[in-house]
Amino acid sequence: MDLLRRPRRNRRNEPLRSLVRETSLSPAHLVMPCFVREGTNLSEPIASMPGCHRHSVDRLVEMAREWSSLGIPALALFPATPLAAKTADARAALDHDGLVPRAVRTLKDALPHLLVITDIALDPFTDHGHDGLMAADGRIENDSSVEILAAMALVHARAGADLVAPSDMMDGRVGAIREILDGAGFQDTGILAYTAKYASAFYGPFRDALDSAPKAGDKKTYQMDPANRREALLEADLDEAEGADILMVKPGLPYLDILRELRDRTALPLASYHVSGEFAMLKAASERGWIDYDRCLLESLLAFRRAGADFILTYGAADAARLLG
Ligand code: PBG
Fold first, then answer.
1. Looking at the annotation, which residues are catalytic?
2. Given 51, 67, 231, 253, which residue has the most CB atoms within 10 angstroms?
3. Cα-atom radius of gyration of the chain, to the nearest Å?
4. Any residues with Cβ below 6 Å from ligand 1, and which?
5. 8 in any annotated domain
6. Which ligand 1 atom sits nearest the alpha carbon of residue 223?
7. Of residues 265, 254, 267, the one with CA closest to residue 224
8. What is the spatial distance between Cα 177 and Cα 183, in angstroms, rounded to a whole number?
9. How many domains does the chain have?
10. Across residues 195-212, what is the average pLDDT?
11. What CATH number corresponds to the domain at position 307?
12. Is the confidence at residue 139, as pLDDT, over 90?
């Protein structure tokens, strides 16, 4: 055979492959999502997310120190609210001494260089488990929810959050958060917007972890229809216009096409969330000896980068950082 082009020539050995490699992955591209609970010296394992725990604040600080030493620049905080604190009006979300503000203050005191991202949504705080407030007829109200979400973002900013991350999918929340933060002098607190967040079955283990599954109905009136691509572009345009600093796509691997679309459309940085169900699948298959967890994890994370993610939220952040280090 007389071939002019032999792409295999560039794959001959590792030094050559490394010269022509198009995408890189390092711990600097990873964010560790983590669960915080009340109490002290507690690390409660989460059955459907092997290796993940609900940590009390003191234990979380110890873990965060380790993650930071692995080169992970940020963590994303999710609270396990005690059942008794969940109400219809989600008032615990606005408590300056609530679990999240306390965790943020403690983390920022102990590890000032570790970025803390907080979740803005009401589902850990509502007795019905929805991300917004519920009207008498069961509808999830938009505008009254946005008001409380913006107030919640201010509580987190005052506690020292570096980025607030609205994951609720109410209309207009990014603009409302930007306005309240700026009005209170928090111009430097960033907004990581869950721009294209789909109504996904891959969130199952996360809802187990926080006992936050909706008691009735589903989240389809606010989270996006998995069938839709163009709608993600609309959401991206709105979030950008409302002042989002970073856009996010969620879930991760099943939605890489959406990530690529947004990469081609916006100059803003992009994040993607490798969600709980995706992580659980890797763990479960590897526990059965069917796949190699380490290699599948790194390959998945590299795929996010190739598709256009600047960084990735993944429960495998510490595992990956260790492997990459
Ligand atoms: C809540 C929220 C969810 C996740 C992040 N924030 C669950 C949901 O929307 O029901 C899911 C994350 C994961 O599955 O890892 N607003």
1. 197, 250
2. 67
3. 20
4. 119, 121, 123, 131, 167-168, 203, 206-207, 219, 275-276
5. no
6. 9
7. 254
8. 10
9. 1
10. 94
11. 3.20.20.70
12. yes
